[in-house]
Structures are given as C-alpha cells and as structure tokens.
Design brief:
This protein has a single domain (17-157), classed as Uracil-DNA glycosylase-like domain (Uracil-DNA Glycosylase, subunit E). The protein is 25% helix and 16% strand. The chain has helices spanning 26-31, 42-48, 87-104, 116-120, 159-167; strands at 17-21, 69-73, 108-112, 133-139, 142-147. With 178 residues, the protein is an alpha/beta fold. It is built from 5 helices and 5 strands.
Amino acid sequence: MPVPLSLPDRLAPNLNILFVGINPGLRSAAVGHHYAGHSNRFWKLLYEAGLVPEPLTYRDDERLLEWGLGLTNLIARPTAGVESLTAEDYAIGRSALMNNIRRYRPRAIALLGMTLYPALFPCEPKQPGRKPGLQPVTLYDASILLLPNPSGRNAAYPYQSLLSAFRLLAPWTDTFRA
C-alpha cells in the first residue's frame, strides 16, 4: 500500500489544545490516522490524564474535535525517523504551522517532543535541559506547553513521567473525571 504524502490535520476554530507532533510516522501515514504506531502511548495518556472522557485509539483521531482538541504536525512529510528531515522541511513546516495557529486560534499548544521548541523558536536563547511544562512564550496568544514525545521510540521518558506531563494540560481543557 503506498504511503500518503501527509495525514489530515484535525483542526477547528478556538480549540482548547492543539497537539503538535514533529512529523507523521510511516504507520500513521499508511493507516491515515495520527499516533498509530503500535508502541505510541498518546491515546492512553489522553484518557489517563483526564483530557478525554473515554478510552480512544488512533482510529478515533477525528473525534478529538468533540472535546476541543486538535492534531497537526510541524512537518507533514512522513518518515521512519526525524533524522531524515531537512532544514527545508522545518522551514516549510514552521510557516504552515504558524498559519494554522493564526487561523484557528487554539488556547494552548502542546508540543509533543522536546526538539519541537527550538525548531519553532530558533531565536530563543539555547537552554540546555529545557523542562516539560508551560513555556515563557506564546504564539498568537496561545500558551505553549512542552511535553515529551509519547512515541515508544522515546524510552527515555517512563510512562508515569509522560502522564505527569500530560496532566499539566488540564487547565486548558474541560474536566471529564474527578
């Protein structure tokens, strides 16, 4: 089965949170749904952090809009890993993402991957060891939260650390569970 050129964004005006990944993996592109990798923890984290009221899978990615959550990627081109991304990919992606943020005006932007921050804010002073959580910048009035990448390839972050980071998003969304 040929891999599509990109995944459809899941966007709507005035989202509570826009989740931004680096770029789609090959499996996600092949099945046409975000975070479809077998070891990706994104969907489990959404539910366990209380950001959605029921367990979901990658097949439910379009349903996130029901709860004011959106999905996109910095770079639309699917790859097996970030090492094949080019400076041109980042420049094109940064421009497209800024246009989407300006157009859709999310309240918060959750960057899923520690490398996304310097890719989006190349003029910010380099800060080694940047921590997950709320960052000291905004984009078009949207708060920026940096979260570790939930991919199973990111074994450096244990599940409980990822869950703690995802729970930081609670103030920007509706509460479904006590």
